[in-house]
Design brief:
The chain has 88 residues and is of the alpha+beta class. The protein contains 1 helix and 5 strands; from the N terminus they run βββββα. Strand 4 and strand 5 form a beta hairpin. The protein is elongated, with a radius of gyration of 16 Å. The mean pLDDT is 91.
Amino acid sequence: MTSAKYTLIVEAVWIYPGWDVAMMKKPAKVTTLIKLVETNNKSNVLLELSSKEAPGDQWGSNFSNESRIGEGFAKTGKSVAKMILKKI
């Protein structure tokens, strides 16, 4: 049992892995649905956000799909954190 009052649920709606062939590349893109819910009552949704096509790009070459996709989720997290900090 956790003592956390709230839980953040991140649902991957769409993932495009992008590609990298050294001379050319296309960044990954991630679309997510983010919900902040009460831990003990997950049907009580306090906040719901949608993040569409967050770019998963890195400087230089990156031949790992997982790494590019991970950058898309990282961008989503940074954007949500920035928005929350702006509201506080």
